[in-house]
Amino acid sequence: MTEPPTSAAARPTLEAVAARAGVSRATVSRVVNGDTGVRDALAEKVRHAVDELGYVPNRAARSLVTRRHDAVAVVIAEPETRVFADPFFALQLRGISKELTSRDVQLVLLLTEGRDDHERVGRYLSGGHVDGALVFSLHLDDPLPGIIQGAGVPTVFGGRPGWPDGTATSPYVDCDNRGGARAAVRHLVSLGRTRVAHITGALDQTSAVDRLDGFRDVLPDADDAYVAEGDFTPAGGERAMRELLDRCPDLDAVFAANDLSASGALRVLHERGVRVPEDVAVVGFDDMVPVAEQTSPPLTTVRQDIEEMGRLMARILLSRGGPEESVVLPTELVRRGSA
Q1: What is the per-residue pLDDT across 1-52, written as a single tens digit (0 to 9) for each?
Q2: 8 Å CB contact between 218 and 189
């Protein structure tokens, strides 16, 4: 009794494609691996034969020849509980995924929560499993930049790096955090608000520092009592808002470093019976629509194109050999009911 062919035996081979196209195996290999040195007519024959036979390249064998793995690591320096609860990360990952998918490149997600995770990520990146890394949400005391640099993989950062170890020269994608913060505070001042407070993000991240600097650009004489440190989370926004109301009960406006912090601040204002925007105007940062349009009232905020930032990170990484300049995207004030 004849055994039915296995799926491996039935899979079209490189030789079968070469026979169908009437070219050498080497020519098929060059076309499949993206070599541009094959004449157009021959390349078209190969592509036609590939389509007819349903040939799928063996990626493992291909990586041995090309030294490429068609995979990119996305490293987020946050615990999974934070990553999956914050829509910012979902938007950035969506932009990255769209760009990688369009290039037929696999996304490998790596999260970090402690030093053991840092070592694990370093071992993985050093192991030659991926062609590069996209890294974001780093903190200033994070060992990951040095670990990643030691791994020797091409890297693009999300957000401006702030380390003196050479990573500052790596390409990055960010938004105009400082300019966006200035626009937010100027808007509050234009409404006649004179006692403007600021809820910062985590100040071990450059985006939070830049937004605080933007606040102080407009209000250089603001009392330190009007600045409370948050951490980019709703709970952090709640804590900071309570501190501000206890210290400065006469405040009439708040600029929060992101929409999640602003949503927490709004909850506390409602609890205290403070009317928004009549008594206190509130502005956030990010324009994450699932958050900004669901607050009460809807949130006035500074828009950054988070999904586009992710797409550009992936595009810069995949354009190795071409220009690797950093990109800073503009921001835009979006007015809604809170200010």
Answers
A1: 444 444 444 567 878 888 999 988 888 877 876 666 788 888 888 888 888 8
A2: yes
CA-angle at 82, arms to 76 and 84, nearest 5° = 85
Tallying the residues shown for the chain, one arrives at 339
* Residue 264 near residue 233, CB atoms below 8 Å: yes
HSE, side-chain direction, 13 A CA sphere, residue 179:
10
Side-chain-side CA neighbours of residue 325 (13 Å):
4
| CB-CB contact of 173 with 319 (8 Å) | no
DSSP for residue 242: H
User: Which alpha helices (H) appear in the chain, and where do they start and end?
Assistant: 7-10, 14-21, 25-32, 40-53, 59-66, 80-83, 87-102, 115-126, 144-151, 177-190, 206-218, 234-247, 259-271, 289-292, 306-318
As a whole number of angstroms, the distance between CA 120 and CA 328 comes to 31
Could you give the CA distance from residue 160 to residue 207 in angstroms, rounded to a whole number? Answer: 7
Instruction: Name the residue among 156, 167, 154, 146 with its Cα closest to residue 69.
Output: 154
Describe the crossing of helices 144-151 and 115-126 by its angle, rounded to 10 degrees. Answer: 20
- The 3-state DSSP class for residue 148 equals helix
pTM of the entire predicted model: 0.77
